[in-house]
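Tokens for Right handed beta helix domain-containing protein. Go.
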Amino acid sequence: MKKFGQMFLVGLAMVFGLGLVAGNVQPPVASAAGTEYYVATSGSDSNAGTNDAPWKTLQHAADVAPAGSTVYVRGGVYKQKVKITRSGSASQGPIVFTNYGTETAIIDGSGLSVSGNEGLIELADVNYVTVQGFEIRNFTTASKNVVPVGIYVHGSGGFINLSNNKIHDIENTVTPTGKDRLGRDAHGIAVYGTKAPASIHDLTISGNELYNLVLGSSESLVLNGNVDGFAVTDNRIHDNDNIGIDLIGFEGTAPNTAYDQARNGLVKGNRVYNNSVQNNPSYKSDDNSAGGIYVDGGKDSIIEQNYSYNNDIGVEMASEHAGKATSSITVRSNVIYNNRLTGIAMGGYNEERGSTVNCKIVNNTLYKNDTFDDGSGQLLVQYDTRNNVIKNNIFVASSTDMLISNGYTKNSGNVVDYNLYFAPSGSSEANWIWKNKEYTGFSAYKSGTGNDTHSLFADPKFVNAANSDFHLQSSSPAIDAGNTDRAIIGTLDIDGKPRVQGAAVNIGAYE
């Protein structure tokens, strides 16, 4: 009876617009879709939510704002968490949470506790919600097995847009213990599809900046589990102590293994740099495993027009789970340089891991990766790689002169051709390892492996590599020397110019 009475009072409040808050009775739903509401540090949740009489908490706004409305958050520091569980709709439009004008709205976790996996901003099972324009910071813990997240999306749902947010200083600082060094985790943005068959879909993550994140064994921006259809575009992800962007499968995030893979996505136009586990106590001191962009068990996605540099690994396509494959990933028109271990890595990192199959590495420019000088080269081909295509790439070796390093013999059906290679010591001293056999010299490598029949060894003649300008001079041998297979090369280069101009295609990221 008491519960029924509360619902009846709320119904009256909704009908007559009463500002009714008594006992356990929740405040009324705001009046109409398309309305603008306001939150300010000087406000009160008993106000009307107008610009002149704003609300005080984001949680109140999230609890009452209807589909199609916009919640403007005025400038100031909000030491609050907010959990969004209300949805917009296709007919009325999304619920939009945004900063007001040019004002800086800061969601600050200083002094707030972290419970389980928890977001400073959290979206649970929602559709048609936009979160944009916030600074999100200082959500930290020193406790094991709890995970602070800047923005955390989970469950199922779709048409979610996370744009133009600045997320930093999300941290787990616990000292890891035990042989596995686990339990120290955090994320800047985390999307976990935890249901099946219902997925998280039609997801946009664009224009955000993520930095100064203390992640332990986790990732800056991660899509994990049943996430089907997404665009991760034009983000800046830098100076974090682990992976930049990660597309994950096979971790048991979704309850049905048939749906437990991030898939059908686009990772485009991002700038990912200075992400490394070098000072991360969750890893050994000689570890170099933080990928700028990592696909660990994801499938059917495109990674293009990104810059990845000064990370441990530029781009990695691998599977950490035995018997499982990262599959049908296209990595094209990216510039990848000065990464510590290697430029692009593929395959399982040892014989107890999974595989990389049916992937395409096309029209990328890789320059002097392997700065750690351990001989991993520009392309690291690891355990169990099958039916992958590696074409139209520029590979410029570091001081090790190693171009491709493949220390495993489980390597079948991989096609390597129409690439341009260059190394400091020249063609006769350049090194390749293929199926665990080392070749010195370009001619010896080609004849010994059957790879790269149409490939070149030549100075690519970049405009100004010292200043990271990898456009091609007009005399570059990479011009018009690539394979023109339209099924794999895409339509645009890294600058957004047409990939096919006339009948020819350049080797490398720039047309």
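The longest helix spans residues 2-16.
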